[in-house]
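Predict the 3D structure for this chain.
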Amino acid sequence: MQEFQVKRGHTKDLGGEVERAIADCFGVRPEKGEGGYVVSFGALSKMTVRIGEGGKSVTIDTVSRRDADEATILDTNRRFRTFLDRVTGFTSKERVKRAKKSVEGAE
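Done. Predicted structure below.
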């Protein structure tokens, strides 16, 4: 399970944006359940997206398929990164920097 901070300005209607982003990035409609949105796609047998307290973060829990081929894994990872970019408002590089800062701050 990973928590991702959401950029200021992207927190308005975060639940609706998560739902739209899942539909656009993965091409499937998410189911509501387990306190968030649940979807199964490609190399992910299950992905659960929950909105954090105050709507300033998203928590994502993923379960991978062990039998997925390499092409499916690469496609799923690309779609997942695009989904994160869209929902959080941060690029992959910015998310890594924020994660490093939070780890350094915790020490």
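The two ends are 20 Å apart (CA to CA).
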